[in-house]
Amino acid sequence: MIFVVGIGFFSLCFLMTSLGGQFSAKRPVDSPFTVRAEVLSGHESRGVLRKISDMLEVIMKRMDALSKLGNTTEAHRLDELSSALDRIQPVGLVERIQAIAQNMSDMAVRVEQILQRSMAANRVREGTLGQCETPKDPRYPDCPSKMDWMRARWTSDPCYAFYGVDGSDCSFLVYLSEVEWFCPPLAWRNQTATPTLKPPPKTQAAFRSDIGALLEQVGAGKESLSFMKRRIRRMAAQWASAARRLDDKLRDHRREQKRILVHVGFLTEESGDVFSPKVLKGGPLGEMVQWADILTALHVLGHDLKISVSLKELHGFLGVPPGRGNCPLTGPLPFDLIYTDYHGLQQMKHHMGLSLRKHKCHIRVIDTFGTEPAYNHEEYATLHGYRTNWGYWNLRGQQYMTMFPHTPDNSFMGFVAEELNETERLNIQRNKVNNMAVVYGKDASMWKVSGKEKFLAILHRYMEIHGTVYYEAQRPPEVPAFVKNHGLLPQQELQQLLRKAKLFIGFGFPYEGPAPLEAIANGCIFLQPKFNPSHSSLNHDFFRGKPTSRKVSSQHPYAEQYIGRPHVITIDFNNSEEFESTVREIMRMNVKPFLPYEYTCEGMLERVHAYIQNQDFCRPEAPFPPVNSSWLGDAPGPFVLPPDSSILAWGANASSYAPWPPLSALRLLASPEGQSCVRACRRAGLVCEPALYRFINIREAFSALDLQCDGLESEMNHLFPAFSAEHAECGLQRDPLLFSCAGSSGRYRRLCPCRDYRVGQVALCRDCL
């Protein structure tokens, strides 16, 4: 208690001394609490007043503590301290503090009066007093409220002062009309003072084979970056070979070079960078594999690339003004595209101010598990229970880019696995060990699976089981004694292990990683558990909070649906008889190494090239349907039934529309009740294409499908356009951001814009290149 009282007293002494220094400056005869004739500038005086106010608040809190201490059982100690303080400081301490406070209050009033007179005089001298009244322009309805906000809060962020705001109404108007866009341009301002910068001339992109410049840009200092650089070096020859093949394929295509920023938000210190410390301890590497491949693909395609893994680098590349992130960027966006993740998107929101809203059409979000439109639309998600910690960014669905093609509402970015030459393929087939299995799971926590002892014991009767579980001093207890654990292996040694093994077995976690594709590419059969019921955000903690309602039917749905037998076998691990018979079947099988084209270097280059050259979310779309269309109101409208087909296609003259994918790929169908467009298109051997939704969001689409509408309504509903058979009502989508392949209801038959796709490249239609 005595210590607290002492701190309070010495804080007072410090206050008197420091304030004396602030005000006496070069004139020691002045009292520290008298107002000098020379008044500090606006910024300085406000800073001093804030300091005085803060110090007084601290003193009064400590005095309050003193008064409370006086009522404790240690009052006799305070009496002793009080007598000691009396010998050091004259009586009347509280009265003096009150006098000081009154003097400072008077001083604050006088300073504020002087500042107001000074600013008013400046406005008169500039001849702008009448010109700085808040304009009342119906085209700028937010101007008055923004002016009020600036008057009250302009000192809340130093970025306003950086842009010339000084507390005057004139500076507010200049800022709100020239830096932001809430007030009309001022007639008395020289509008040529801030010339519009022309974008740099467009240049042709040329394929690159040298990765030296890329490795320099990736940088160092983090184990995650070292891992990515090792992968880039190891795969360099395959990327170069793939670039030559794609260059030959695209000879007649002009490829415009884009200015691209890649900001890997999850690797920044500000996001916590939880991945780097786990790189050498069996942590998840899927995200770093994908980012390394994205960087390499963009570099090899010949684009002008900048890489950021810190907020400091992000600020420098974007031109973020100093401050707390409330102001727009200092100039035009210097990039055509920005690739980032959810962490990076959040960081840009905090540091780009209104510029994020203005430039968000340039952003692409790398999103492993996908984001469905119902979760992406902020207002809709909030009103209908789809709001999560992620999502709600109001982007176009295709701006989210996934690791696997599981969410057609998003774009499929992917990654690559190493390809084998013919000699390597033959050697693998000759050297396979028929009774050797490798378990998918580098971290001991992945082995904590209920019932694993039962099916591992069955497997052990037929095969030698190998693990690659990280450990430091002693063997992880989760790994059974009969498993030969190699510890965490470097990538090349893991490849050698997979090239010998016959079976690669998953326990159900991690979901949708790159390892099963690498194992299949090295000639393994992937055995995985079927989930019944399917895992989703409704019943499983891992998916809870993710912006998707997708139902995951197995550990690796892509492998199950797009590859399948004989390379991938999905069964119920709880059924011991089925499990054992499957193991015996696998031992009799001979499979060749297999890698889907879309996961080769050439496949990824082809896909990323198509996205960069064709996806433009900044260009305004022409209104549809056009007013003068000859088919308006007539059945079947713009749709025709091609020969030898039961699915409607686009038949109207589409010369005025050039969407991507092109309208030649469109196939129109209606889903059964309770079925999503994802599933309905897949069952027809097609893929749902959200970019074509606006061309079927018309009354004529219902007529073409023989769905008779007694009523037609338009609303925000992620299931629309859809038909309600019970009421014979047709519903059109009001908000394009809610066009969604995902989602189903027993009440509706959904209208689905399906498309064809290239063999081995589900992201692209046949005419998409």
TrEMBL record:
One of its GO terms (cellular component) is Golgi membrane. Its EC number is 2.4.1.155. Residues 1-20 form the signal peptide. The keyword Transcription does not apply. One of its GO terms (molecular function) is alpha-1,6-mannosylglycoprotein 6-beta-N-acetylglucosaminyltransferase activity. It comes from Gasterosteus aculeatus aculeatus (three-spined stickleback). It holds the Pfam family Glyco_transf_18. It catalyses: N(4)-{beta-D-GlcNAc-(1->2)-[beta-D-GlcNAc-(1->4)]-alpha-D-Man-(1->3)-[beta-D-GlcNAc-(1->2)-alpha-D-Man-(1->6)]-beta-D-Man-(1->4)-beta-D-GlcNAc-(1->4)-beta-D-GlcNAc}-L-asparaginyl-[protein] + UDP-N-acetyl-alpha-D-glucosamine = N(4)-{beta-D-GlcNAc-(1->2)-[beta-D-GlcNAc-(1->4)]-alpha-D-Man-(1->3)-[beta-D-GlcNAc-(1->2)-[beta-D-GlcNAc-(1->6)]-alpha-D-Man-(1->6)]-beta-D-Man-(1->4)-beta-D-GlcNAc-(1->4)-beta-D-GlcNAc}-L-asparaginyl-[protein] + UDP + H(+). Belongs to the glycosyltransferase 18 family. It is a single-pass type II membrane protein. The lineage of its organism: Eukaryota, Metazoa, Chordata, Craniata, Vertebrata. Keywords: Glycoprotein, Glycosyltransferase, Golgi apparatus, Membrane, Signal, Signal-anchor, Transferase, Transmembrane, Transmembrane helix. It is found in: Golgi apparatus membrane. The keyword Transmembrane applies. GO terms for biological process: protein N-linked glycosylation. Residues 159-754 form the Glycosyltransferase family 18 catalytic domain. InterPro entries: GT18_cat (IPR026116), MGAT5_Glycosyltransferase (IPR052105). Pathway: Protein modification; protein glycosylation. It is an enzyme of class 2 (transferase). This is alpha-1,6-mannosyl-glycoprotein 6-beta-N-acetylglucosaminyltransferase.
